[in-house]
Design brief:
Layout lengths: L8 H18 L8 H12 L15 H10 L6 H14 L3 E6 L4 E6 L1 H8 L11 H4 L3 H8 L3 E4 L12 E8 L6 E9 L6 H21 L9 E4 L7 E4 L2 E4 L2 H12 L6 H8 L7 H15 L4 E2 L4 E2 L3 E3 H10 L3 H7 L11 H21 L2 H9 L7 H10 L3 H14 L11
Parallel strand pairs: 6-11
Antiparallel strand pairs: 1-2, 1-5, 3-4, 4-5, 6-7, 7-8, 9-10
Helix pairs in contact: 4-8, 12-13, 12-14, 13-14, 15-16, 16-17
Amino acid sequence: MALEPGADPAERVRTMRRAHERFTTAGAVTRPVRSVVADSWRRSARARVSPADTGASVELTAGDLGAYRAEHPLSRVMPLFRELMGGFAKDGEHLLAVCDAHGRMLWVEGHATTRARAGRMNFVPGARWAESAMGTNAPGTAVAVDRPVQVFATEHFVREVQSWTCAAAPVHDPRTGRLLGAVDVTGGDGLAHPHSLAFVQAVARAAESQLALLAPEVDPADTLELTALGRDEALVLVGGRKRRLSRRHSEIMVLLARHPEGLSGDELLCALYEDEAVTPVTLRAELTRLRQVLGPEVLRSRPYRLAVPVTSDVDVVERRLGCGAVTAAFSVYSGPLLPGAQAPAVVRLRRRLTDQMRAALIARGDPDLLSDWAHAPWGEDDVEAWRALAAVRPTAPVVARLRALDQEFATDGYGRAPRP
């Protein structure tokens, strides 16, 4: 919760404003900044968001916005959002907002005067309110961390937004668990009440239930299964046939599976190639060959996207970690994602998933799980894992291995876990 029961909102505004100034001038986070806000401020700073920004960038307008909204899965539950939240927003002088998984606003509705005020900072449909674009804010941060978030007044990173309070909850595809976007309520300080956070959580769960009822039964023959953990060449099962992909096709499939809404040619180029000299012609040739492997009805273009539901071992691990099922997640984690891949976006995803898996195992502290990780090929030089294992199972071989790693990797007294 952003505000504890009995706390004085005016005093909290002043306290958080001072903390915000300390962070933006000296980079220091002090109490009573909540951890979810402190982490978001740090991500915002790393993304080079300026606290002095005055408004979001509008990326979709007119026909482009209408076409994108019509095709988005959350369009199917907009009637439900309006039924559950529309009256609350209008009566309370609040706004109902829905964004996609990239923090791009799809709908912003509610009290007319409040909507006009919000429009002055481009809190409007088509605007990008991702945390990396507008700093800490409930819808952008909710999709960044994939959990419900409440942001109170001066907890916002951009000063222009600090007169607002908001609460948002992520919405997922009920079949695959994939993040679709978030539903948000935005307004005044009164929304710092714990009921507003519980309210948007309940609405998000209702939307997921509604999507489950609306989703047609899927024929397994019309789905695609992707296996990419622990192997340089991914396997795909499509149309009842299993295929081994080339390394480049494996990278493309991982990225398209992560972006069901599709990626433009320029976005794929940036995600795949460090060398800016690679031309769109090269990428189109790769995609033509991949289409021949998958089938013409599976891979679509403009934007490039997969036209069938996709399940992947990466999604399974992330979903299980997200609900705290660490042992179940580790049972699927057969190694780092495409360990030989060099595509920048795949490297980032590989590191993030490895870090999440390692952190979950260390937090669990199960000696058997930690031992399995440390003795796996990808964990042999993982100092953090060996240190955690030594803390719960300090046998002579474990302690000796940790000492050897510390001597090998430590240059300043701290062991460094290698990046897979």
